[in-house]
Amino acid sequence: MTGIEDFTKPYGLVDKIDAFGYLDYLKSNPDAPRKHGKVVLVTADTPLKASRGEGKTTTTIAMIDALRERGIDAAAVLRQPSMGITAAGSKGGASGGGKASLTHPELIDWGLCGEMGAIEAAQNLLVSFAEKAIDEGKLDTVLVPRVSEVPSRSLRSTIVDAGKNNVAERVVLTPTCELMQIVVLSRSMDELAERVGNMTAGTKDGKGVKFNEFVDLWRITNILTDAVKPARTETVNGSPVYVHGGPFANVSLGIPTLASVEMATALHDVVIVEAGYGADAGAQKWLDIACREFGAQWPSAAIVVTRATTWRDDPDLQWRYPFHVERLENLGIPTFPLINLWEGEDELVDGLKATANELGFRTPIIGNLYRDGGEALAPQLDGFAEAVSVEDIPATPESHRGTPLRDNLNWVSEHAYGVPAERVVEKAGFEASLAEAQELCESVGMNLDDLALVAVKSPATMTDNDALPVQERTVTLKKVEPHTGAGVVHVNLTTSLTTPMPKIV
Amino acid sequence: MTGIEDFTKPYGLVDKIDAFGYLDYLKSNPDAPRKHGKVVLVTADTPLKASRGEGKTTTTIAMIDALRERGIDAAAVLRQPSMGITAAGSKGGASGGGKASLTHPELIDWGLCGEMGAIEAAQNLLVSFAEKAIDEGKLDTVLVPRVSEVPSRSLRSTIVDAGKNNVAERVVLTPTCELMQIVVLSRSMDELAERVGNMTAGTKDGKGVKFNEFVDLWRITNILTDAVKPARTETVNGSPVYVHGGPFANVSLGIPTLASVEMATALHDVVIVEAGYGADAGAQKWLDIACREFGAQWPSAAIVVTRATTWRDDPDLQWRYPFHVERLENLGIPTFPLINLWEGEDELVDGLKATANELGFRTPIIGNLYRDGGEALAPQLDGFAEAVSVEDIPATPESHRGTPLRDNLNWVSEHAYGVPAERVVEKAGFEASLAEAQELCESVGMNLDDLALVAVKSPATMTDNDALPVQERTVTLKKVEPHTGAGVVHVNLTTSLTTPMPKIV
């Protein structure tokens, strides 16, 4: 009998799994033993600062340890941390902490098995092929940015071929690039190759040219052979954790690969998916992109993590947390507040529960997860366990495919950020950018409105000014950039500075 | 009992070995069972074109298969191919061919286990730290180039922070960078960290500043945890092959890591080290840098590979092959000509042997290695087997450490390229470049003359014009660039265009 072990190989300190092969096997063998696990999103309040974690990863790890302690076969799927950011010291690791940790955080945080490096090489090779296509007269411009895993402020704007042709370029952070999106959204190597082929390399005589017009796609997929395999590691308590896909739900998808989640639901009863930064970033993207547009499984429950302080102490911003919980509940997703305590905050528990009650939340799950890990949670999970034991997998709401992008932007602003259509404003140049994107898509035989909307925005804000009263908040539309290979369209929102290439701090 | 298996972990299709750990174990346990294998160099005639292989890797593979067929415990150590070059299609794979192949060429050629990607990230992170140091007033200039595994003509000259500070930068191919050199030359993580710390990040007030003055070195070494481990794979006949270290002996070291070779000699009786491109590049670097200056083992024999056509058919260049064989023999290294036949050349064997005899060579080893693999060689290896069965490991000639660089350049020109001191000429600007390098070294407390000389030159030429008569050939000295971390100094030679950043072709 074939099982997941036939698709698994040790890879240093972790295992790597051929998820594409396993999903293909399940497809060809509909009677093979498998589970139909439920997906649970762990997301968070909108962070006050991008770099200050609420503890989503710690929560995810504590949750599966707690569920397994209760006899529930739970696993987690995490995104791979951005090694460049971790190594540069801008941010701590992204593999939990204290009793809610992974066994090999140093590996997970420091490049895992080279997945990001392979994606970087592959996207940069595409740019080199485009450069060669310019030499050969097949392209006039290159539209695909080079990538770097390492952050560097000065790479935001670069000029290559300096002193000769002086071509303006930009470099984006590897985890945010279109090829990473393609890895995240693909369920087979064939699909991946097709998507790479559909990337718009650049333009010739004003019209888009796809990579499949001049690149041997096997050269790219060969580089990605191991990068498309999720890594399996475990918590210090032995609970299974799959790591795959890039972070940065502010400027890209920032969700784990669909293949890794799909594989995990075939292997476990409950699969916790980390979706950060806040619910307006990662969770919004899981729901409105992965589920609605790419067939990922709609969550059977959600957990919205916060810190005791973040939740209550900034009067101007405290609307955000209840907004997120309510939005998810209104979508029919049982949503559990979870408060991750710092040391010395144990005496706040009663007050936090009272506030939660006043706000009409479900009873919050509260614990110091760094100190106590899953043990702090296990006794509090009756309601949660009930929510995920419902037999049916919930239906996914309808796709927005074909909805005019401008209408879809209004829809997201209203539903995800609480700003109605009349206060969605356009920055000078937005119309032109939209028209240009539409034309580019048409020139490669695609319709812009068929692409899934990726909101590009600051991770720390939902609107142009979250601190204003609700009726004064606006959302500004700035710029449109289609990724025809991934099948998404980026729209830059709000007045906050957003760049896919941070500086190291 | 501890053995190499305790330092070995499966890593997908290959094993990775903690060579640093094993070497450390041998050092602390002088009585542990180990071998004292002989090193054999496989090198080649100077290639007519960089991209046209003589078949060094194929020969290396065929040789160990043949030796093992004769009952000799032989292994090979190969450099990792440059995935960017392979993937871009500029060059075929670098893992042998036909019957003289590795079991997983697609893996070896396509990024192996992410070693190159990790080195790329680490060197680029150093550049980002240097950039931050500029912001903080600790540096005025950055001297360390960014790197890319993927070739791209337009990255030869770049401007970053465009539109603001417009900083001129350059990007070099990852396998050629100083950090790769450090990985190649280090025998422990401590040594590696010390060397990274000694890299000259840039200048402040005209003086060099080392990375150890402002970077936490563990951030860099953490990225390299797996990259410093050689991969163990095997030939299709099951002979062990270790792969580690970067190619490009034209513009960098281009030799396998010293740790991987040292480990292999503790495990096997004969260790074949591939040293390309031609003998004037890879072999020269193994002998004059690795052995003389960094304690690598002096070879007990050498094989100089050529094609039947290259050897004899260009009257202007046919001096090069005998020159290489003679040079190696004069160093006391038993040197075996090996002629790798193309299909249809079998009838040339007698003529080739006659020519070799006229030239005073040892009897050449001749075979179609693609078609016949090691079987073509095994019966011809009596003389070779005798050469490597001598008990003593040969002594290494004296170090050139402390010799003035200019004298060392004359010495290399005379011994490796056959051009005496009086015809070693200086291009305008060389003196200034030399003086600047001397000053920079002094400002970081080092002596330029203590650095090992890395000749940077075209792989296809040894002098300014190899086709001229011997008494008219010259070597031109162009530019000096110290790598204080690796402990080497690059000197660009000859008039051929050399760049560490090729275009894709």
TrEMBL record, chains A, B:
It comes from the Bacteria. GO terms for biological process: tetrahydrofolate interconversion. Keywords: ATP-binding, Ligase, Nucleotide-binding, One-carbon metabolism. The keyword Ligase applies. Pfam families: FTHFS. The keyword Ligase applies. One of its GO terms (molecular function) is ATP binding. Pathway: One-carbon metabolism; tetrahydrofolate interconversion. Coiled coil: none annotated. Its EC number is 6.3.4.3. It is an enzyme of class 6 (ligase). This is formate--tetrahydrofolate ligase.
